[in-house]
Amino acid sequence: MVIDIGGGTAQVAVISLGGIVAWASIRIGGNKLDQAIADYIKKVHNLAIGDRTAEDIKIKIGNAILQKQPEKMEINGRDLILGLPRALEISANEVNEAVKDHLIEIVRTVKKVLSETPPEIAADIINKGMVLTGGSSLLKNLDELFYRETGVPAYVSNDAMFCVAKG
Fold first, then answer.
1. pTM above 0.90, yes or no
2. Stretch 70-98: mean pLDDT, rounded?
3. Cα(163)–Cα(30) distance, rounded to whole angstroms?
4. Could you give the CA distance from residue 106 to residue 29 in angstroms, rounded to a whole number?
C-alpha cells in the first residue's frame, strides 16, 4: 500500500503483481494544510499570515499527533484589528488543531481503500505495512497517526519528496 500526499492531492493505492488492486484520491494535500493553518491563525489570533509563513509553520513545528511538550515558534503577521505588524508564538498543538480535519479525511480514504482490498492482500499489508511518500508525508508523526487509526504499520519512504518523480 502506498500513500502519496503531495501538494494538491492525497492518493492511496494498493499495488500487487504490477497492478492496482484498489485506489482512491482526494483533493487534500500540503496546500490545503497550509491554508488551514493560515485560516486557523486568522480565526483564533486575528493575525493574517502568508502562504510561505504557513508552510514554514507546518514544516518546522507541524505535528499529526498532540504533544505533551509541544514545540513553539514565533511568527510575524498583520494584526487584523489594528492593521499593524505583530509577533505571535504558536505551538505545535495549535497546528495540529488546524490541520486535524484534513488529516482525518486522509485517514478515512486509507480506511476505504483497505476495506476494498481483498483479504489475502490485506494480510500482506498488515505484515509489510504502508509506505508514505510525497512532501506532505514528512509531517511529524504522520506515520504514527496512520498506525493508531488503522492498526497497520506505516513508514515514511526514503527521499519522500522526490521518490514519486524518480519512480
1. yes
2. 96
3. 16
4. 9
